[in-house]
Amino acid sequence: MSQTDPKNELFENLSTESDSQTQAAVSTHHPNFWQRLIEPSETITDAGTRRQASLVSALLLALVIALSTGVIANSVALHQYGIAVVLGCTAIALGTTYGLSRTRHYKLAQTLMFVFLVAVSILDVVTQKDISAN
Known about the structure:
Elements: H1 6-27, H2 33-38, H3 47-77, H4 81-101, H5 106-126
């Protein structure tokens, strides 16, 4: 005659309930908002390539958000409309590139991202005004 320990029985019941809840949560898992914004195209199946495409999308999205903040700051607070226009055009170009990064053409988006960033950096240096006191 074997007796089961009530504590063990309780633990087994809790463990079984926990496992079924975890399994239900995993089966109904929906990606969070950020993951949906950077998730690559379904045509990209290799795990390493998917991570690289997600990284490109994340970088582009972060740049678009930062540039948009710069547009608002330069136009509203600083009243430097020329800079705001340049930042706005860059944000639009990178936003379009972000859209491209969500497709199977993420490598093209990666190249365009670097081209836009280098071009804006060069334009900034070339068109910089001397605002020193001397």
